[in-house]
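Reviewer comment 2.1 asked that we show a complete input and output for one of the modelled complexes. We chose the 2-acetamido-2-deoxy-beta-D-glucopyranose case, as it is the one discussed in the main text.
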Amino acid sequence: MASSPLTIYSLFPKSSLQLLTLFTTVLLSPAIAASTNQFKLDGKVLELNDSNFDAAISSFDYVFVDFYAPWCGHCKRLAPELDKAAPVLAELKPPIVVAKVDADKYRKLGSKHDVDGYPTLKVFIHGVPTEYFGPRKADLLVQFLKKFVAPDVAFLNSDSAIRDFIKAAGTNFPIFIGFGLNESSISDIAVKHKKKAWFSVAKDFSEDIMSLYDFDKVPALVAIHPAYKEQSIFYGPFEEKFVEDYVKQSLIPLILPINQDSLKLLRDDERKVVLTILEDEVDEKSKELIKVLKSAASANHDLVFGYVGVKQWEDFTESFEVYKKTPLPKMVVWDGDEEYYTVIGSESMDETNMGNQVSKFLEGYREGSVVQKNLHGPTLAGFIKSQSGVRLVLILIFVVLVMVLIMTMAKEEPLTVGTRDHAAGETSSIPQPETREARRDAVKED
Ligand SMILES: *[C@@H]1O[C@H](CO)[C@@H](O)[C@H](O)[C@H]1NC(C)=O
Ligand SMILES: *[C@@H]1O[C@H](CO)[C@@H](O)[C@H](O)[C@H]1NC(C)=O
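Response of the prediction step:
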């Protein structure tokens, strides 16, 4: 848990912030540093500051940046790992440069890049930042970052190539393998979802591989979720629209434990969430039910299935009116935003024939035999999809314009324009810091 400084802000629509950053850069930077390459690619971690940050980012296609503070414990532990990873990443083709910024000293630079905790880690790909939430041990970090520079689609020509590919891919991303599939069927989709999954096509493979990945004819597109020990198969039709639907739906495993990390996956998914609230995610009873839910999920691809234990995340379950005396498990359909539905007659489950009860719940939902409710109290949940991108951009642009005006009048630079804090001050729906802390603590308890 400690390794993942996720805050509410990461649920903020990134594009608006990028737009804002771009906007402020264009408007406010006196001059963007010349792009003559003053940086050596020697496998050392670059130490950047106010005067050379922009130049470094524009000099390299891939830059991993650690915004740290000298006094922060996690940062101190991370530093030697970055020293170890940097020479390996510098050798990749194309190379990934590792850099660090003392964001406590260079605060303006930090706030320009939305640093709201230490360390904040970002990958700049062609100048565009993506927040990094991956592992922090040198070897795992290298494995994670390799995704960004890997070919869009890998060609696997033997069983051993397939095995090596899976092994090298690790458990950070879903893996798609098109067995006997022409790469042209997935190449566009692979480019589109490159940051979220591995894509490959395999030409020659044995029957062992077919039984291992559980398909009996080709072409077959297999989606594997190493982290969730899950896989699924798609036999076509291999027209772009269908392949893309399958890929999009398979970026998320069939059934997902709900926590702050998995909420990030849900953020990008349009489907409604069949949410099962349990006493405790990891007890034996729950495991049985999760199996039942998984098979329901494979027959209902238009819905995402998730589960959460009261013991694991009580604050979150309270949003669905689960309190001490609420009979559990409770199932609802959540829109990923502010609304959810209970199904009349299927409000809770007992332990007899859970398969039937899940089917009955889904039938009831599809027939519209539901009661619509609003999430109870302010929750993390509400922030996933409730931010309307357009509205936010307008507000942010307005804030920037006001700032520019003030700056022109004041002739000084006392303002950290374009930070999330400013934006947060302007949008009432962003939670207060105390709430965030409380929520983070709630998650840490497990
Ligand atoms: C930033 O770092 C460079 C290279 O180490 C140094 O020459 C420069 O003076 C530094 N600038 C600031 C503002 O600290
Ligand atoms: C893959 O499809 C493209 C375009 O549809 C075609 O030109 C190419 O020959 C195919 N490749 C193979 C190996 O079948």
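The chain has a mean pLDDT of 81. We note this here for comparison with the apo prediction described in Section 3.2.
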